[in-house]
Write a structure and sequence with these properties.
The protein is an all-alpha fold and 450 residues long. It has helices spanning 10-21, 24-36, 40-68, 72-80, 85-117, 125-136, 141-159, 161-188, 194-201, 212-224, 230-235, 244-273, 283-295, 300-336, 341-362, 376-403, 406-413, 422-446, and strands spanning 370-371, 374-375. Strands 1-2 form a two-stranded antiparallel sheet. It is globular, with a radius of gyration of 21 Å. The model has no long low-confidence stretch (mean pLDDT 90).
């Protein structure tokens, strides 16, 4: 398939894939999950999941994608035979659902970007809470922002890999990191911030709920973009001499560092202004405006500028993630149905917009839109992060560890024998035994069997 694009340089590969990994998962989902699960103890389990299951799982998907250099479904079929295409289909379905609810939260970020430009977020903590409630229960506004976000994603994806995705990542990712560091310092200097730092760093095992293992696993996979063939699709644009293990490790470290920084930005501020750490998906939206106001109260202009910059970068981080979710389905419809890229992209855009509208209404104007006692948005989040992503990663491990041609897997891992074999053995052992076993144990634990 000579017409397929490839990423330009080694740095671009890492940046684009890191762009997929770093997003609302780190800055929105990680803090609220940590808050709901008791803080530091959750983080420990989360790190164990990243190291033990996440990195080997990433390499797994990279291998499939780079070997096959085609869309997710066909790639899995090439490695394991037609039946294994199912993993690809599952991945396309999962990422479509994720994009649907993710766009809602990304839309909230757009609203907050607009509101900080217009100076609407200025007020005491009670005002900031009511601002979020008024906005999110509006029947129209959040839907429009959400659908708008899907459309922006559409425009970038329809342009193709090189032009759209790569260029923007190079500039804006480092900027996000710098701003995050500034805000961590600002937040940690607020009065009473110490309690928040303690909450993050001192494990209190009595607060650990029974669901903590599956939640941490889901968060680790969600944050790494693992389990939906997303990494597989990106790896299909990698070059042959990319060191996959090294790239996976670098991305996982960067991703975790950003999550921790986001925690250090949110919790000291939350404790300082008395916002409950377990307030769920709205956590960052009711905490951050207070940081901007209080930490920079001596220099309101600086607070104003930083707040705009922050939401702009958050929108951008979300965009590099939504692009990657959109690309999975677009590449599939483009190559399998032989549709022009533009039209393939429209299929995804329409489906995701519909999901986004329903998810958005379920946390606002139509709160009776519930599934199993959860809002549709929370349900989609639970279904994908805690069930479908682990299932996808589990099946990929089984395929690569037990069914794929071992020589082929080894050649792909070592780039045709040019990389050392030591790591291959450890990695292969881990995807054969550790990854599938741990995922099964965590499932059994969650559903009360263990
Ligand atoms: N990892 C992204 C984040 O942390 C979200 C994401 C992008 C994702 N692509 C994905 C999650 C594919 C699961 C699957 O925000």
């Amino acid at each position: 398939m000579s017409s397929r694009g490839t990423f330009g340089s080694k740095l671009a590969i890492v940046l684009a894939t890191a762009g997929s990994a770093v997003g609302l998962g780190n800055i929105w989902r990680f803090p609220f999950m940590t808050g709901q699960n008791g803080g530091a103890a959750f983080i420990l389990v989360y790190f164990a999941c990243i190291l033990l299951l996440g990195i080997p799982g990433m390499v797994n998907e990279f291998l499939v994608g780079r070997h096959a250099q085609t869309n997710a479904a066909r790639a899995y079929g090439q490695i394991g035979g037609r039946g294994w295409r199912t993993i690809g289909y599952l991945g396309i379905l999962t990422s479509t659902i994720i994009l649907g609810f993710y766009a809602v939260v990304a839309g909230w970020c757009l609203q907050y970007l607009y509101a900080s430009i217009a100076g609407q977020l200025d007020g005491d903590p009670a005002y900031v809470v009511s601002y979020f409630q008024t906005f999110s229960s509006d029947p129209l506004k959040p839907c429009l922002w959400g659908v708008g976000f899907v459309l922006i994603t559409h425009v970038v994806v329809a342009q193709g890999v090189e032009k759209g995705i790569e260029r923007a990542s190079k500039l804006l990712m480092p900027l996000l990191l710098i701003l995050l560091l500034i805000l961590v310092v600002a937040s940690c200097m607020l009065p009473g911030a110490g309690k928040g730092i303690e909450f993050l760093l001192k494990p209190d095992f009595s607060k650990v709920s029974s669901g903590v293992f599956l939640e941490a696993l889901g968060q680790a996979f969600f944050s790494l973009s693992l389990g939906t063939a997303c990494l597989c699709t990106y790896a299909s644009y990698f070059k042959r001499d990319t060191n996959l293990l090294r790239s996976a490790t670098q991305i996982a470290l960067l991703d975790s560092a950003i999550a921790i920084l986001a925690g250090l930005m949110i919790f000291p501020a939350a404790f300082s202004v008395g916002v409950q750490p377990d307030s769920g998906p709205s956590l960052i939206f009711i905490t951050l405006p207070n940081v901007f106001r209080e930490a920079f109260s001596a220099m309101p202009v600086v607070g104003y500028v930083i707040s705009i910059l922050f939401y702009a970068l958050l929108v951008f981080a979300a965009l590099t993630s939504t692009i990657s979710m959109h690309e999975i389905g677009t590449a599939f419809f483009h190559e399998e149905l032989r549709l022009p890229r533009q039209r393939a992209a429209w299929i995804l855009t329409v489906v995701c917009s519909v999901i986004a509208v329903f998810c958005s209404l379920s946390v606002g104007a139509y709160s009776n839109l519930q599934v199993f006692g959860m809002s549709l948005l929370d349900f989609c989040d639970f279904l994908t992060a805690q069930l479908m992503l682990p299932a996808g990663a589990f099946l990929t491990s089984i395929l690569m560890g037990w069914f794929a041609n071992r020589q082929l897997v080894k050649d792909e891992f070592t780039n045709g024998g040019t990389l050392r074999e030591t790591f291959f053995k450890a990695w292969f052992f881990s995807i054969r035994y550790i990854v599938p076993l741990c995922i099964v144990l965590i499932f059994l634990h969650q559903f009360g069997v263990l």
